[in-house]
Amino acid sequence: MEFRHLRYFITVVEQSTFTTAASILHISQPSLSTSIKNLEKELGLILIDRSTRESRITKEGKVLYLEAKKLINHYEHVVGEMKRLKQQGPSELSIGLIESSKFWVPKILANFKQEYKDVRIRLLEVLGLQEVERALNNFDTHLAITNQYIDNKEIETIPIYDEKLVALLPPMHPLKNKSYININDLEGEAFIVCKEGFQTREDILNAFRKSGIKPNVQFELERFETACSLVEDGLGITVVPENYVKYSKKSAFHIKQIHDSNISRTVYLAYDKNRYLPPLVLSFIALVKDFFDDKPDH
Amino acid sequence: MEFRHLRYFITVVEQSTFTTAASILHISQPSLSTSIKNLEKELGLILIDRSTRESRITKEGKVLYLEAKKLINHYEHVVGEMKRLKQQGPSELSIGLIESSKFWVPKILANFKQEYKDVRIRLLEVLGLQEVERALNNFDTHLAITNQYIDNKEIETIPIYDEKLVALLPPMHPLKNKSYININDLEGEAFIVCKEGFQTREDILNAFRKSGIKPNVQFELERFETACSLVEDGLGITVVPENYVKYSKKSAFHIKQIHDSNISRTVYLAYDKNRYLPPLVLSFIALVKDFFDDKPDH
DNA sequence: ATGTTTATATAGTTTTAGACTATAAATAGG
DNA sequence: CCTATTTATAGTCTAAAACTATATAAACAT
After folding, report:
1. Which CATH number fits domain B3-88: 3.40.50.10330, 3.40.50.700, 1.10.3720.10, 1.10.10.10?
2. How far apart are CA B58 and CA A97, in angstroms?
3. Which of A33, A235, B184, B213: disulfide with A230, CB 3.0–4.6 Å?
4. Banded pLDDT at B139 (limits 50, 70, 90)
5. Contact B2/A4, CB-based, under 8 Å?
6. Would the pLDDT of A118 be above 80?
7. How far is A158 from chain B (nearest CA, A)?
């Protein structure tokens, strides 16, 4: 069984006919037929139920398909790494980020660049938990900074720091002069929150749930930036990670600490344990660990 | 670049000579030389510094070696999965069982066989929690009946019923005429319990622990059957799931209810969510659910 | 130095896996 | 019942990968 066979098999499954698969693969239909037949013979399993109308995958075929798909992703990743190496060009470090990590990641990258000058760095916005898992599994990113624990034995998830969530109040809000607020103060207020699937949404809604308060959600959106401008225009209150607003200067809104033990969350560094991590990736992980060992509270 | 080339390359690196690598791979040295040369040509990189004395890997070769090693591991995993699938045969249902489930599983299997006559059914004794997880992850079993909750995102654990644990007393025991006993009555008594790693052991020892009583463990063994015959011979007291003795006729021992809220446990049905579950497995799960929906208390 | 040993490279040949074309067989739909 | 569509089979060609024999290079011993 060579990679070619798996590639062919995957294409047949996805096209569900041999003829179209063959044309996509730029080989003749008989070649593809015999190739799949040989694969089945080698494995001793029937992978595809043939018919003249439309071929259907068997349950054994389904297992191979899912496994092979991942394996081919891995293969493509290795080929990509070698191509990059050949071009002598800069190697690459790609990191998936949550929005609130923007304040500290650049500081680490500054150090990192001193040691690895030619490395091109790709920063990707990651969304939900599934998205993080998919990105790591598919070799889209080497690392992810995430605020939900990933319960997957293939992925190592290291807690790096805890961060508070703070409320943002519009300029003229009645609570603007309090030095801090309680979560109960937010009851009934028009509330702005991330859309379904975004990681911060769950953290915030959980905190409300634990406190027995039902937020009056009026807006759902994708980015903190948008939420901030809605707050500035007096459309409601939102809750964001403290780190997101701590370092920003221009703020027409009021930042208020919330006195509630549920209003905090842990941020993790995650990576795929099974794949080869180049030295530059290990080096970046070490920098992150060092950074937060010195400053335990962030 | 096919799997073969990577395998060859890895062997050369690990042997650090072409000649020995070739003999390990059961090919001739010239074949191996040209194969590696072709790989280098395809990638456009020099992977190995040849010399007559001892070949050394280049910097680029090292990268490929580390990447390829991971990739080949992945490949071997997939091949292993397919071999296991083949050995399992196309229509087999394998279930991991705890001993106390023997009373009801056959009733369900009778129904199941009416619908799926040709399916071979394998019943496996499962042991500890790790054993269950491993068996489900490795395709050893489609399902497991277990009495511990499995906290693993990949595994779905459905509670199906609660069962009491009862004490078995020897024929001439002083407590034989009481209608029920308390857990304190068992203090100091010679006690028979499952060996380390068996699931029921933990349930029973936990119940004692919660009641602040230390059992005087005199025998550790693997099967309830053996425990029963030790009790019959007056060697001590044991505690077993009520369902294990409820339906057996010949009993030279006394079965006593224990009045203690800790002396019960939940039995679960567990399966791997990520794997493809054939229809016959889904059908079996449905039968189990139906069975216990009708009879909520077992 | 120079021959011996050891390892890799090259040349030429055979074998085999995978590609092709042409065509048969099967089946759904008009 | 014919037609269009799809997969399977047969026969052939090609290219990749195996082989054997031998050249070449370098290290080491005498």
Report:
1. 1.10.10.10
2. 34
3. A235
4. low
5. yes
6. no
7. 18
